[in-house]
Amino acid sequence: MPQFPAHRIFPTPDAASEALAAEIGDLVSTRSSEDRSVVLGLATGSTPIRLYAELTRLHREGLSFSNVITFNLDEYLGLGRDHPESYWQFMHVRLFDHIDIPPENIHIPDGGIPDGELEGYCAGYEEAISEAGGIDLQVLGIGRNGHIGFNEPGADPNLPTHVTKLNEVTIGDAAEAFGGAGNVPRRAITMGVKTILEARRVALLAFGESKAEIVRLSLSPGVTSQIPATYLQLHRDSTYFLDQDAGAQLG
Ligand code: PGA
Prior knowledge:
The chain contains 7 helices and 10 strands. By secondary structure, it is of the alpha/beta class. The structure holds 2-phosphoglycolic acid.
């Protein structure tokens, strides 16, 4: 039986990003030729920046995203869409402002939802994913602590989209962008592990030496909530796209 996640090691982050962009481009154009939409789950962070640059390049070369519907993984709670560190801003600056995706097809959790409305909001996010037909391909990064989305160590794998607390490693990693750990939001809205595992295909990107250990640990057989990325071992169509540094500890 094939082992999942599969992994592919590329010479550079650019090469890995180009390979995933090519896969996404093929999916988008195949669906378009069938007059069908395609649903992508998208991630933020430094890792997918090259992927989005490459998708932008494919668009300039003629690939249309008019049949694409997107759902982002997560958003900091308490940040409005106009906050420079919001994932809303990130996605627009890095991708959406440069392609022809219809604005109404873009879904990013809204970090400005008041506490009393969050439960209904999260349920609505899941419903929107179902109504769109479910996620065809989910792009993920991985935190140094093994998180996927904001499913931090100890995450309940049975949760759909929900509100969660950020773990100390995650807060530390975000501190610089926010000008100090004290400014990093403590909570986020995130798709759950359940949501991620329901995607028909999952592609995880990881680059650099700092990810080598967690990549090895998350691919070591055995599922544990202490390393949420290990839940991808339960997914029958998941692939890690790695550069040489991130894949350095794999046998
Ligand atoms: P990074 O974050 O891409 O900025 O390394 C990855 C993640 O935390 O998922």
